[in-house]
Amino acid sequence: MEPSPGRQQPARAARPLSTPTLIGFLKESPTYAHPDDLNRARSVGAAAAPGFAAWLAFQNAVDRQDGAAPRRYRELISVAVALDTQCGCCLDVHTAAARRHGVTAEELAETAFVTASVRAGGTLAHALLADRLYEQHGHNAPSVAPTNAVPTR
After folding, report:
1. CA angle, residues 66, 111, 83, in degrees to nearest 5
2. Is the dihedral of CA 133, 136, 142, 144 positive or negative?
3. Mutual orientation of helices 88-100 and 71-85 as an angle, nearest 10°?
4. C-alpha distance from residue 20 to each of 6, 26, 27, 28, 72 (Å)
5. Global pTM value
6. Which element (helix H / strand E) includes 27?
7. Distance CA 68, CA 61 (A)
8. Burial class (CB within 10 angstroms; exposed 0-12, middle 13-18, buried 19+) of 91
9. What is the pLDDT of residues 46-67, one digit of tens each?
10. Mean pLDDT over all residues of the chain?
């Protein structure tokens, strides 16, 4: 059936990339985090020695063996933060450490969904803040009709 005059044809859907093609693209992409990037920490640290030394001291203090929270809990917390911040290097390091400290696949999966839920809750909390701020900004401000408002007769 031919399209009616003046009617556009629907756009063709882009052919999805196959998984191997997508993985190959990501590995070759200059913006994709690569596991070898962790090997750059010392050279990047040398370029900013005082900051790197302070971060490393903090990291070592937090990563000690005698913390009040068991290592497996600290690794689950680290995985949750890595998921939230979307840090691939952190996920690599902390999922490996979590496994070494006895975290199960089920605990890891549950941690992911708890993280997602808490993050969604944070978004809702900020929506409540935005609503209150919106109201506060409205006091003593002139009311302006939206530009796409339909005029009334």
Report:
1. 90
2. positive
3. 160
4. 41, 10, 11, 12, 34
5. 0.66
6. helix 19-28
7. 13
8. middle
9. 999 999 999 999 999 988 889 9
10. 82
